[in-house]
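--- STAGE predict ---
source: upstream dedup step, 1 unique chain passed
mode: sequence only
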Amino acid sequence: MAADTVVLTVRIPVALQQQLDTVAQAMEWSHAWVITQALEHFVAVQAWQVEEIHKALAEADAGDFVTAEEIEALNNTYKP
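--- STAGE serialize ---
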């Protein structure tokens, strides 16, 4: 086992484990590889969302809000 890895134990639903088996077998990859790929994707998406939320909160704290006129102008661009 590589020095830069850790062992992680989790409980998952049986149905998810069966899906994992199916995917791993179809791809001819180990369960560990499939799980690592899934976790990397999930963490990347969540990290992006958390970063965007922090940016939005900083803008709100700075009082950087859209004006009513800007909202109306935007809404008018989508009217038929």
